[in-house]
Give the backbone structure.
Amino acid sequence: MPGGPHPYFEPMRSAIADAATDFKLTKGSFEVPTDWKQDLQNQLLTSLASKGYNGFGIFPTDGDAANGIVSQLVSRGDPVVAVGGCVHEPTKTSFCLATDVGASAYTAAKTVIQAMGGKGVLLHGTGLLTDPNTQLRDQAVKKAVGEAGSSVTLITLADIDKDAQTADTAINQALAAHKDINGIVTTAYNPTVAAAKALRTLGDKRIKMVGIDDDPITLAAVKDGFLVGSMGQNPYGQAYIGAYALDQMHRGCKKKSGAPYFIDSGTLLISADKTTTYQNDFKTLTKQIAGDFKAKYLSC
């Protein structure tokens, strides 16, 4: 269950269907709250629990406040894993299966700065402030810029991932107001699509950009040279591996002593030469993580 509507989570829908078949689950469902509000996620989780669902993979609407509903579910005997974004510790959530968002954003920013020749003005379009990943990504981009010294100036557009229109307006206004921008890094889905469209409209490949995720508009811009690349994530794998973990815990497995809370679900830079192969790379990685999961993280 995502924290609210967002295109990033759509691959999780098919992942749950595949997991239900592969792991012979009684049932599996992909449910989305109508808005990004913790109360709405809590209500939906409570409703599903009353209908017999007894294992939950959630992207928390609020990384801190989600601990309340997690504690309620776990007290019923229903294990919870976080998928895509972590419930903040301390928590009764067993695992967090997610992108190492700091490392991914750092790689993106370093790649852009290198493509900029190590100097200029870098525009950063961020995700929602309620997203537990946003602060980590923002810190990582600032770290990369700091390492470049005074030769790179950072402009940050915060909290612009609410929807496509919000991102489009923010990106285009920034490009119009700051003609000296020669680099863009976006660390959320909608800002990436917005910036990819804006650069194609400008038709000028002077501005170097690395985005995130694999919207068709983004991938086409990578393939056509308007983007250096996009940081791929593995939402399918997050949900698929999460379902495996929940099933194993219902079969009597416990979290192994000393096992980590955070498990990296994988990321890679989708450059022009990887636009047709990256999905197979992620499927291979997903099968590998699931195959090793019991031995590495569970005591059965």
In short: DSSP finds ten helices and twelve strands in the chain. The longest helix spans residues 278-297. The first strand starts at residue 56 and ends at 58. The mean pLDDT is 96.
